[in-house]
Amino acid sequence: MNNTKRKKILMRLQENIPKPIIELNYTSHFELLIATVLSAQTTDISVNKITEKLYPVANTASSMFELGIDKITEYIRTIGLWKTKANNIINLSRILLEDYNGNVPNNREALESLPGVGRKTANLVLNTAFGFPTIAVDRHVFRVCNRTNFAVGQNVKVVENNLLKFVPKKLQVHCHYWFILHGRYTCLARRPKCFLCKIKDLCEFEKKVDL
């Protein structure tokens, strides 16, 4: 795909959703971090149902740590990987209290040192909480970028690097949300809704799906 097409794709996605927002519910940097950790291999809807009950009880590093792993487990056991996630939440809360005065750090190295926080989660927190021009590549972004030929790569790191190369810096804050939402509601994994797609004529996917 050439850069002229890429620019047109970004402009159309921007026109469709000028100011995209994350679909996880949160009111603080800590709540965003916990919701993102919980969202691994789980839908945002499922996470929001959990945090709706969890956050009124514990929504800071200190209150979460005081809640304890057994109580955390009771709140999150309806989602996948709940045992691992409960351990990660209690341990990252402890580290935030010990090393960062309970605050969420705003640098990649510190974030990725926290239990349960990988590159995608760190990118999302840096972008959404702190406004950094980072691009989080989840399964939707990975699929859309490869399927359309916008940014091809065999793994998420390659796709991320290509996105950082192809997307103008002023658009990097929002671009991964455009791709996430496009992949979540239009460019579906099994049967993409090409007949509704805003970028159908620009997409280089050869097996477009009609009604």
From TrEMBL:
Q: Detail which positions bind [4Fe-4S] cluster.
A: C187, C194, C197, C203
Molecular-function GO terms, alphabetical: 4 iron, 4 sulfur cluster binding; class I DNA-(apurinic or apyrimidinic site) endonuclease activity; DNA binding; DNA N-glycosylase activity; metal ion binding
Q: Which GO terms describe its biological process?
A: base-excision repair, AP site formation
Catalysed reactions, semicolon-separated: 2'-deoxyribonucleotide-(2'-deoxyribose 5'-phosphate)-2'-deoxyribonucleotide-DNA = a 3'-end 2'-deoxyribonucleotide-(2,3-dehydro-2,3-deoxyribose 5'-phosphate)-DNA + a 5'-end 5'-phospho-2'-deoxyribonucleoside-DNA + H(+)
Which cofactors does the annotated protein need, by name? [4Fe-4S] cluster
Q: What is this enzyme's class at the first EC digit?
A: lyase
The similarity comment for this entry is:
Belongs to the Nth/MutY family.
Give the enzyme's EC designation. Answer: 4.2.99.18
What job does this protein perform? DNA repair enzyme that has both DNA N-glycosylase activity and AP-lyase activity. The DNA N-glycosylase activity releases various damaged pyrimidines from DNA by cleaving the N-glycosidic bond, leaving an AP (apurinic/apyrimidinic) site. The AP-lyase activity cleaves the phosphodiester bond 3' to the AP site by a beta-elimination, leaving a 3'-terminal unsaturated sugar and a product with a terminal 5'-phosphate.
Instruction: Tell me the lineage of the source organism.
Output: Bacteria, Pseudomonadati, Pseudomonadota, Gammaproteobacteria, Enterobacterales
- Explain how, and how many, cofactor molecules are bound: Binds 1 [4Fe-4S] cluster.
TM segment ranges: none
Write down what this protein is called: Endonuclease III
- Keywords noted in UniProt: 4Fe-4S, DNA damage, DNA repair, DNA-binding, Endonuclease, Glycosidase, Hydrolase, Iron, Iron-sulfur, Lyase, Metal-binding, Nuclease
Q: Give the NCBIfam families listed for this entry.
A: nth
Q: Which residues belong to any copy of the HhH-GPD domain?
A: 38-185
